[in-house]
Amino acid sequence: MKSILVLNGPNLNLLGIREPEQYGSTTLADVEALCIEEGKRLGIEVSCLQSNHEGELVEAIHGAREGVLNGSCLGVVFNAGAYTHTSIALHDAIKGAEVPVIEVHISNVHARESFRHHSYLSPAAAGIIVGLGVDGYLLGINALVRRAGK
Ligand code: DQA
């Protein structure tokens, strides 16, 4: 069975509690359960990881490389939270590991503060899903599956 990693960065462990007007009331556990469910529907093994630490996110991207190279992993659905706007290390990790990444943002970052308009990840990402709420994760999983079928 092919696999996909759903990776969440800083503060996304607070989903459901944090700024519900921006991010809604769905918790991270709910999101992960929905992603695993979507994976089952598509015949994909979905694993989930959240970290508030940049280096752990870098290592998670590195960790996906081998699976991508041997064809067992389709890629990573990644909401890097605020590291999106700051992290050259995550940009380099995606590029260096050659892992297909779908960048996801729950909120429409372009309708928010200007410091959220720039993403270091986007130039390295295979695709970007912004502002569609937590459905963005499920769309990201589907995007990786469809992309692999091309
Ligand atoms: C976010 C948007 C980021 O600007 C913010 O720092 C987050 C969440 C989103 O999902 O909308 O933590 O990535």
Structure report:
This protein is of the alpha/beta class. Strand 3 (73-79), helix 4 (88-97) and strand 4 (101-105) form a beta-alpha-beta unit. It contains 5 helices and 5 strands; from the N terminus they run βααβαβαββα. Helix 2 packs parallel to helix 5 and helix 3 (54-70) packs parallel to helix 4. The protein has one domain: 3-Layer(aba) Sandwich (Rossmann fold), CATH 3.40.50.9100. Strands 2-1-3-4-5 form a 5-stranded parallel β-sheet, with helices on both faces. The model has no long low-confidence stretch (mean pLDDT 97). The protein is globular. The chain binds 1,3,4-trihydroxy-5-OXO-cyclohexanecarboxylic acid. The site of 1,3,4-trihydroxy-5-OXO-cyclohexanecarboxylic acid has 10 residues, from loops.
Shape: globular
| Lateral strand order in the biggest sheet | 2-1-3-4-5
Q: What is the chain-wise order of helices and strands?
A: EHHEHEHEEH
How far is the first residue's CA from the last residue's CA?
18 Å
Q: Report the strand count.
A: 5
Give the proportion of residues in helices. Answer: 40-55%
Per CATH, the superfamily is: Dehydroquinase, class II
Instruction: Report the oligomer.
Output: single chain
CATH class annotation: Alpha Beta
Give structural attributes.
5 helices; Rossmann fold; alpha/beta; 150 residues; globular; 19% strand
